[in-house]
Amino acid sequence: MTRVSPLASVAVIGAGAWGTALANVSARADRTVRLWGRDEAHIADMLASRENKRHLPGIPLDKNVQPTADLALAADADILLVSVPAQALRGMLVALSDKLRVGATLVLCAKGFERSTGHFLSDVAKEILPHHKVAVLSGPSFAVDVSRGLPTAVTLAADDLDLARDLTQVLSGQTFRLYHSKDMRGVEIGGAAKNVLAIACGIAHGRGLGASAGAALIARGFAELSRFGKAWGAQSETLMGLSGLGDLVLTCSSSQSRNFSFGIGLGKGESPLEAGHGKLAEGSFTASVLIEMARQRGVDMPIAQSVAAVLAGTLSVDGAIESLMSRPTRAEINE
Questions:
Q1: 156 with 136: CB under 8 angstroms?
Q2: Which of these is catalytic: 63, 126, 194, 230?
Q3: pLDDT exceeds cutoff 80 at 276
Q4: Catalytic-residue membership of 230
Q5: If you write DSSP's letter for every residue of 244-310 in order, what string do you get?
Q6: DSSP bridge partners of 105
Q7: Gap between the terminal Cα atoms of the chain
Q8: What pLDDT score does 334 carry?
Q9: Residue 46, pLDDT above cutoff 70
Q10: CA–CA gap between residue 16 and residue 84 (Å, rounded)
Q11: How many Å apart are CA 121 and CA 118, to the nearest integer?
């Protein structure tokens, strides 16, 4: 059994929009929270203006958030919320490995798989930091909403249910509700796969295909996510919950979603390099590894496969639409 003190200190690694939002809600429990970013000029501006002008303009930092570019200082905490992009996680964990407190817990907040290895992010963390506890956090949440104190609910999962339960109690706030889970695989799969499916919905929106097509993509996309999750050992209840269906619906239906907006750009004829408009869409990195992992387990994911092909330049947007619409008819259930 692993216990976490209600007085545990918290730090956030990654001063992007999501990291800043997490720092704000963590600090609202009257706790000092260090927020680390690698760009010293950015950190200096945050200290001076008490605002993350680059990623969350107009939203003040909580008075208890302390931005810093000193990684060793930030790492000196009981709980670290690691909010760096999925493909940067390995390097970040290596950099942290000799700076962490004994017994520190890492909560991974990125959504994706490691592209170079096809590994789950929790497995990457366990490989690099085998003596530290690892949890994952995911669910339907936009950084702007969380930072403004709007009601949000997400899932936190760990192999040790007592650890997950304690972390939710420590990190939950008045408007930021965490549900605990032991199904790390399910939470990670929901967070990673929905980004790819959101790109598909964005493409349909950008192409002007209508709300009916968007609803069909969400429904059939969820069927793909469920098949994939089942093949990798996820619990169906998790996939139906906040970190699965909940996050999928949010990400596939709002322009606040970077992946949905990226897909809109593709649907309007922009190239993958143009469609991001300078913002990171995690699904663009996840698509190819998602379909490779699906292939390993014999899972059919035609929507995700079409997105990956469009990103790779081997299929046009119109070709992807035609391919999906011309698939043989089949029963909707009992697949």
A1: yes
A2: 194
A3: yes
A4: no
A5: IIIHHHHHTS-TTSHHHHHHHHHHTT--HHHHTTTS--HHHHHHHHHHHHHHHTT---HHHHHHHHH
A6: 79, 133
A7: 40
A8: 57
A9: yes
A10: 8
A11: 9
Q: What are phi and psi of 158, to 5 degrees?
A: -150, 155
| Tokens 């699906």 sit on residue | 294
CB atoms < 10 A from the CB of 293, how many?
22
Question: 335 pLDDT exceeds 70?
Answer: no
Give the DSSP per-residue string, 196-222: HHHHHHHHHHHTT--HHHHHHHHHHHH
- Residues 68-115 have pLDDT tens digits of 999 999 999 999 999 999 999 999 999 999 999 999 999 999 999 999
Q: What mean pLDDT, rounded, does the chain reach?
A: 94
Kindly report the number of other CB atoms within 10 A of residue 44's CB atom.
Answer: 12
Q: What local confidence, expressed as pLDDT, does residue 2 receive?
A: 58
175-195: burial string, b at 16+ Cβ within 10 Å, e else: ebebbbbbbbbbbbbbbbbbb
Angle, alpha carbons 226-185-157 (nearest 5°): 120
pLDDT at 5 over 80: no
User: What average pLDDT does the segment 154-165 reach?
Assistant: 97
DSSP 60: B
The rounded distance, in Å, linking the Cα atoms of 273 and 254 is: 21
Which among 286, 116, 256, 267 has a CA at the least distance from the CA of 190? Answer: 286
Average confidence (pLDDT) over 319-324: 89
Taking residue 97's Cβ as centre, other Cβ atoms within 10 Å add up to 13
